[in-house]
Amino acid sequence: MHNEPGSESWKKMVLRSMPPPAWLHADAPHGDVVLSTRVRHARNLRGLPFPHACSNEQLRLVESLVRSGTASCDLPLEALGKLSEAERDYLLGSRLISHDFNHRAAGRTILLDDRRTVSVMVNEEDHLRIQALTAGWSAPQAEQSAALVLRHLSHTLPFMEAPSYGFLTASPSNLGGGTRRSALFHLIGLAHTKRLGAVVRALTVWGIVVRGLYGESSRAVGAFFQVSATTGASPEFTGACEYLLNEERMARREVSRLSLSDTTLQAVNAAVTAPTIGLADALRVLGWVRWAASAGLPRFEFSPRQVDEWVTTMEVHGTTDTATADRHRAAFLRSRLEGAVART
User: Fold this and answer.
1) What is the per-residue pLDDT across 76-88, written as a single tens digit (0 to 9) for each?
2) Can you tell me the distance from the alpha carbon of 91 to that of 119, in angstroms, rounded to the nearest whole number?
3) 311: number of CA atoms within 13 Å, CB side?
4) Taking Cα atoms as reference points, which of 106, 112, 100, 124 lies closest to residue 61?
5) pTM of the entire predicted model
C-alpha cells in the first residue's frame, strides 16, 4: 500500500524524476505576496486547423513538426510525451502545464528546459503555448526567457499570421501578439479584510483579469489568484501588479500578529486532526500557513517557498479515487504541520 499511486512514497518517486520548477527558487522578489511571474506566447502552424478542429492525424503531425523544429534549432528542451497521473498533477501544481491540457489525447506533448523555467505545451488550445515562469515578481526575467525560445522556434516553424490581425490564435482574446502576462498572487490579507472585491473591480478598469490558482475554470481558494493581461498591455499589467502589491501589504498590516497566529493555528489544528481533507480545504490551510510564515511568526518556522513547494505537490485531480486522494492529502499535511501545533 505504501507505493500505491498518490501515497507519500509514490510522490517521492515522482519528485525524484521531476526536478522542481525554477520559480520555487528562494531568491524571489516580493515573494511574500507574489509566488511567480509568467509570460506566455500562443502560436499556431500555418496550413493546419486549430487543435479543436484537427483530426488525430493532424494533431500528431503538429507534434512531429514541433519536435523537429525544436531539435533543428538546438533548443535544450526535453519532450515528455506520456505522463503518469502523478506527473501530470505535479506539472499542473508547478504551473508548467494548464488545467485544460489533456495529456492523454493524440499529439499532446510537453517540452521542458532543464531548469524548469520554460515549458511548451503542444496542442493545448493552440498548437504551441510557449511560457516562461520566474520566481516572485520578476516580469523582465520571464519576458526574456520566453522571448528567447520564441525567437528560436520562429526560425524553424512557420507560424500562422495575417496582415490585418497579426498572429492568429484559437481564442479571439489572444489574437495579434498572442501574448499573455500573468503573476500568481497570494491576496490573503485583502480577502481577510473584505477588501478584495473592491480591488478586483478596480483592476477590471485596466483590462486585468483575475482567476483562480489553476486558470479560467478554477475557483480562488487559499486566496491564490492569477492576475493576467493580454497582448499589448505590458505597462497596464505592471502597474496593476504594483498596485496589488501595495494594497495587499496595507491589508496585512491591519491584522495583528496575535490574530494571525490564532487564526492560522485554528486552521492547522483542524488539518492535522482530520482523517481526510479536500483540495480546497488543504489550499485554505496552506494559505494561512504561508501568511504566518511570511510574517515570521515563531510558531510557524517555515519559509514561504517551503509552503509553495507543498502547494505544487497537492493532488489536483488525484491519482486514485477521491476518498483515497483526500486521505493521502491529509497525511501529507499532517506530516508537515503537526510540529507547529506541538510548539509552545
Assistant:
1) 898 887 788 888 8
2) 10
3) 30
4) 106
5) 0.89
